[in-house]
Amino acid sequence: ALSTHVNEQNKRRRQVLNEFLDLKGNIRVFCRVKPLGKDEKVRPPVSSDTSNVIIKLTETNRKAYSFDRVFEPDSSQDDVYIEIEPVIKSVIYGYNACIFAYGQTGTGKTFTMEGLPGSLGIVPRAIQGLFKQVEESNHKFRITFSMLEIYMGNLRDLLIKSQATKLKDPIPPSLSINTNEKGEINIDHLVNTEVSDFDEVFKLYKLGCRNRATASTNSNSVSSRSHCMIRVSITCLGASERRRETNKIWLVDLGGSERVLKTRATGRRFDEGKAINLSLSALGDVINSLQHKNVHIPYRNSKLTQVLKDSLGQDSKTLMLVHISPKEDDLCETICSLNFATRAKNIHLGQDESKE
Ligand code: ADP
């Protein structure tokens, strides 16, 4: 049974890569439904198959949302990685890429991106995958790693060793974002460390996580207060035929999308939530403008979209992984997330194809 499973996985891997190489649009939207907890036995109002999420609004009224791929509650980390692997490979083929985890706090964004020991998520698998690709390639590559967060509209470098600032302290001077003559985005003074194997990356990643957590007054809520962004840059040494010398992939665990007015948060927590909501809607606007091929893309409306300007749109590969809870209590937030995801989806692909 195990060998059949491995064969099936390999078959799916090849299929996904072929689909990816044929892909017309550059933005794909996947949805992952969190499994119910052991004590949550009631029939949830959310059901799914591999490409649809169905919401039971009333006994007779159901609404279906379709996506490029839906990961059902019993899907494994393997199932997810197989589908996103081509995006990781695209960086070696000369593209910039960006993978986002979006959703309400507690729906599994960190589980998908980081994973647990023995159940690794996208970030460790992607980095292992990149090193493997580099090893197998005929070219020489230089790989660098950076990690930052966006908190209250400011960029904080997570790889500064002595970073002892608390989030409640006055905000340290924000890193500034510049565009060079080639249209590439640079973040001034951001630590960008050369890495040669997975262990080196893992140490930096742990440092970044510690810096993120120590800055928080409540580590449980750290991921709902800020966006955590990892950048892996790959420079092909001595390959002049490539379109760009350096390509990068951003792996982004977005702050919780719950609407701040509904959470009844007050004070600083309210401001944090408001900042997250604003930047998520700016991200939605940028993706939507890209899908509609608008002339003006509103990158400037948030730090998040400014940082990602050269990795979103044009010939970059973007993947949005929207996370939802199947629970009755979360239904409002689930519908909001599904609506956001639908707006981000490539709704015009059909039209574009008919024009060609
Ligand atoms: P978020 O980052 O969206 O706030 P987490 O990733 O922290 O959410 O998930 C909340 C909890 O649910 C964690 O304990 C996590 O391990 C668990 N969890 C989330 N998704 C899954 C899943 N698909 N399978 C098993 N456990 C999950």
From TrEMBL:
<feature type="domain" description="Kinesin motor">
    <location>
        <begin position="26"/>
        <end position="347"/>
    </location>
</feature>
<feature type="binding site">
    <location>
        <begin position="103"/>
        <end position="110"/>
    </location>
    <ligand>
        <name>ATP</name>
    </ligand>
</feature>
<comment type="similarity">
    <text>Belongs to the TRAFAC class myosin-kinesin ATPase superfamily. Kinesin family. KIN-14 subfamily.</text>
</comment>
<protein>
    <submittedName>
        <fullName>Kinesin-like protein KIN-14T</fullName>
    </submittedName>
</protein>
